[in-house]
Amino acid sequence: MIGLPEDISACLFDLDGVLTGTAALHREAWKQTFDEFLRERDGADFRPFTDQDYARYVDGRPRADGVRQFLSSRGITLPEGDSTDPVDKATVNGVGNRKNELVLRIIADRGVSPYPGSVRFLEAAEEAGLAIAVVTSSANGATVLEAAHLNHFVRARIDGIVIKKDNLRGKPAPDSFLAGAKALGVSPANAAVFEDALAGVAAGKAGGFGYVVGVNRANQATELRANGADVVVDDLAELLEERR
Ligand SMILES: O=P(O)(O)OC[C@H]1O[C@@H](O)[C@H](O)[C@@H](O)[C@@H]1O
């Protein structure tokens, strides 16, 4: 009764941009980080980081992958460094640490709100007896889930910390979603993936999941379909309305 195929028994939700409005906060922190980096490197007439750069190279991917992918699109390669690098060090980790410092500050200042339509959908999924996992590339997944008061819906969480610890390939590879399905004890064919990022719907498609729901938060319905979404909605509550 919740707008999913009959044989779906589990839901794997991305977090930022699917359940909570935090994708825009990540994008803002990334823009400030990369623009500062490029200004420092190229001077005042640097080419700024755009929304399209975010969608193509950064959105949905683990932090370090986002740094590498975007910089490589500008012909820049940095040494990896390590997780203790200061925020002004020109390494993949240094740039990532700067972004994390900014995003945590933005989250603390503005707070985290869940999308009301997503909360309604979570309630309906729970009531329908579906198993629920959150699969996010963010190492801040636990903090965001808790701040949004959504923890009680979630039976399993695969986040950026688990991805690193278990050496999983980041989205668009399917590994994190496959780990989510495994944690819930369901096969991919019986699980639905919910994603707002192009790399995320691509991961759902690559993993052979039963249904991939693209959540269109950034005016990219066509791209979500092209990258693997079976259906695209602007808000998860639309799925509930379809079946009324
Ligand atoms: O830097 P974090 O919090 O570990 O997050 C990694 C990525 O997590 C994803 O959920 C976001 O879509 C990306 O914007 C973000 O870069």
From TrEMBL:
What's the EC number here?
5.4.2.6
Q: Report keywords, A-Z.
A: Carbohydrate metabolism, Hydrolase, Isomerase, Magnesium, Metal-binding, Phosphoprotein
The UniProt catalytic activity note for this protein reads: beta-D-glucose 1-phosphate = beta-D-glucose 6-phosphate
Keyword Magnesium part of the UniProt annotation: yes
What cofactor does this protein call for?
Mg(2+)
**Does Isomerase count among this protein's keywords?**
yes
Q: Name one Pfam family in it.
A: Hydrolase
Listed GO MF terms = hydrolase activity
Any coiled-coil regions, as ranges: none
NCBIfam families, A to Z? HAD-SF-IA-v3, PGMB-YQAB-SF
Q: Which family is it part of?
A: Belongs to the HAD-like hydrolase superfamily. CbbY/CbbZ/Gph/YieH family.
Full protein name: Beta-phosphoglucomutase
Species source reads Amycolatopsis acididurans
